[in-house]
Design brief:
single chain, 173 residues, alpha+beta, Alpha-Beta Plaits, 2 domains, three-stranded antiparallel beta sheet, two-stranded antiparallel ribbon, 5 helices
């Protein structure tokens, strides 16, 4: 009988010690949380991001509206996840998309495979692909996570005509 009681005490003692340690940390965490707020009410409040944060890919343009991407595929070659696909085409005088000889006819990034390393940005000789701080990239389907060139290109900013609207041109320039 003494063996059974001794065995029961020896087997429950570590469990009681563990529960006591857990309770001690819980009390310490609860009292610390009373003095400092931990929860951020997203999306009304947002935490500041670190200066080197890299999230959403953007294909940039020159000031005249032409695309910076020349279809060289160096970004696709530098990508360790192999999530970038670039199909290049030749520029013509009738249809000019970039200042060089070539442009990216098709540019796709599979965001499900991307690891946001920034190697594509570093490899780009023209600075066409950049990673910005927009981190809201949730999608409901796999197809929506395949970013096409139209989704990646930054919007064209219209430059107001100085003769038609002089006050807008003065405010823009």
């Amino acid at each position: 009988m003494a063996d059974i009681v001794s065995n029961a005490v020896n087997s429950t003692l570590p469990v009681v010690k563990g529960l006591g340690l857990t309770l001690k940390h819980y009390v310490r965490m609860f009292t610390a949380r009373q003095s400092t707020q931990v929860t951020v009410e997203y999306p009304e409040q947002r935490r500041p991001q670190f200066p080197r944060t890299r999230w959403r890919h953007v294909l940039t343009r020159y000031d005249n509206g032409l695309e910076k991407c020349i279809g060289c595929s160096l970004c696709a070659g530098a990508c360790p996840a192999r999530c970038i696909y670039v199909e290049a085409a030749e520029n013509t005088d009738e249809a000019r998309f970039s200042p060089g000889e070539r442009y990216a006819r098709r540019y796709e990034i599979n965001m499900l495979r991307c690891i946001f390393c920034g190697y594509c940005q570093e490899a780009c000789p023209t600075g066409a692909i950049v990673l910005r701080k927009d981190f809201e990239l949730a999608s409901y389907s796999r197809e929506a996570a395949l970013y096409t060139k139209e989704m990646l290109l930054e919007p064209l900013i219209p430059v107001p005509d100085e003769e038609a609207e002089p006050e807008l041109a003065a405010a823009h320039g």
